[in-house]
Amino acid sequence: MSDAKIPENLAYTEDHEWLSQDSDISTIGITDYAQSELGDIVFVELPEVGSHIQQREPFGTIEAVKTVEDLIAPVSGEVLEINDGLEESAELVNQDPYGAGWMLKIRLEEPAELEQLIGPAEYAELISGGE
User: Residues near 81 by Cβ (< 8 Å), separated by ≥ 6?
Assistant: First the structure.
């Protein structure tokens, strides 16, 4: 059983991204489980502000000491802001994945896409292997 933190107020993807929704602005990052599986994160590549991300498509990469993984967009939208702090301190994703380690803010284009995300209980079951 994973002891990863899974905040109740977020939505999740099976690719281990989280999403926080505030009106039409979505904040996106990776979960505590994902950062612990990756290990020490050394670099995060994020899209340009003003670019467009597409649901279920890669929007960037995250590099850990042992591996590089694609970041998969939970929803589609225009990138409004990226977390510049990760350029200097990628380890913020390890230290605080739901806070200082957030990755981007987008303007949600298709509210119906939110229905395809999973809730905290379902995500907990996913990472525990359905135990």
Answer: 49, 104, 105
Buried b (16+ CB within 10 A) or exposed e, 9-22: ebbbbebbbbbbbe
At residue 2, does pLDDT exceed 70? no
Q: How far apart are CA 38 and CA 20, in angstroms?
A: 22
Cite the DSSP H helix spans in the chain.
32-38, 85-88, 92-95, 120-127
- Strand pairing report for 68-72 and 11-12: unpaired
Distance CA 108, CA 28 (A): 11
Joined tokens for residue 77:
């939208």
Q: What is the pTM of this model?
A: 0.94
- 82-91: pLDDT as tens digits: 999 999 999 9
